[in-house]
Amino acid sequence: MNNxxxxxxxxxxxQQPAAPIWQSEAVRVGPYxxxxxVLATDWKHGxxxxxxxxxxxxxxxxxxxRQTDYIMRCISRTLQAAGSGLHLVAKAHVFILDCxxxxxxxxxxxxxxxxxxxxxxxxxxxLLIPGARIEISVIALAEDSGLKVEPAVSNAPRPLTKKxxxxxxxxxxxxxxxxxxxxxxxVPPEAAGAGERPDLTKQSAYTIKNxxxxxxxxxxxxxxxxxxxxxxxxARQESEFLVAWRDAFxxxxxxxxxxxxxxxxxxxxxxxxLTAYLGKDIRLPSRKALHGPEAIGCGSxxxxxxxxxxxxxxxxxxxxAVPVPYPHYSSAIRLQTEWVLKRLDAAxxxxxxxxxxxxxxxxxxxxxxxxxxxxxxxxxxxKLPPARSVVKTSGLPVEGAKIAIEVYAAAA
Length: 412
What we know:
By secondary structure, this protein is an alpha+beta fold. The chain has 3 domains: 1-147, CATH 3.30.1330.40; 149-159 and 170-279, CATH 3.30.1330.40; 298-412, CATH 3.30.1330.40. The protein is 21% helix and 25% strand. It has helices spanning 63-81, 102-112, 200-217, 238-248, 332-349, 371-381, and strands at 2-5, 10-12, 26-29, 32-35, 89-96, 118-122, 134-141, 149-152, 166-169, 172-175, 225-232, 254-259, 270-277, 282-283, 295-298, 301-304, 358-365, 387-392, 403-410. The strands form 3 sheets. Strands 1-2-3-4-7-5-6 form a 7-stranded mixed sheet, covered by helices on one side. Strands 8-9-10-13-11-12 form a 6-stranded mixed sheet, with helices on one face. Strands 14-15-16-19-17-18 form a 6-stranded mixed sheet, covered by helices on one side. Helix 3 runs parallel beside helix 4 and helix 5 packs parallel to helix 6. The longest helix has 19 residues, at 63-81.
């Protein structure tokens, strides 16, 4: 059922227990449905009893399989309430706490998809619910849109799992997250540094080259990429990644760079995720930023980059500093969250949207103990909350930055 809506946003509510935090279960914008990240919780017992292994029968199933199955059933019910279904999922974001759990997760995942969506799968530094091993969010098409998820296959190294390189969904092309591997031997020589040492710039260039093939197979070109996400093992190496990024793309894509704790292929240093827009209605910001646009409007949707304090100068803004004489009158996370949300609102307004038109937010915290204070500030800014994902990042490009937020929003 749909509980509430604005002219461009529809909040989705199913019969499942509501999260006791300020986020929507899912939000629809035009033909696109954005879900909040789902963890294996019933919001009463921590990890839901049916998502846990019965200690009397410890070898019948595993924690990751039970949690994944619980999550997928929850997502399926949410999509059904939104007038969609798993067969219309175009993109999934998966944060799996321990990459050793991947095989069990993937086994369950494959049971739910006859035709798999694109997927980005990385290891966060932490999840919000103690005992949680995984969280999943998706982007899907509404059944009544008449649109279909159209998969693409190129000559790039094939995924070793049941996912596709890229799909077209309406005017957008979503890629799977890709890493610098050849699907045979891990990191190939052309992506390795001197003495076969890891080289982030070479890995980035190799990955982007393969992703260009995936884009073209889906009918998109690098010039049509409007959003990129680089998930680095060490976010402080952002400059090494940017060397390859700037060689491959013009200044159009809105770029997010954040740190993750682990990746699925040994020796890889980053995973890259791209979104392209095939339509003509592109709205670029009036102000040029250091690392590309802070937001881009594409028809009915707007995509932001990750916004974090110090993104311009490399140093935390003065507004984010807790006054030394008055350490108990404010907190760093509250000040930084206010700064980020104000900056996001300005970026969105510059391309024909606004913060209160956000449909989905992806939030990265360096310390999950900051979540409660962050969520209090968040509530003050949203009368109708967007869908949301929150994970712990291993780090941000600016030392001392505690939060990064990126959003999908509706055009005003």
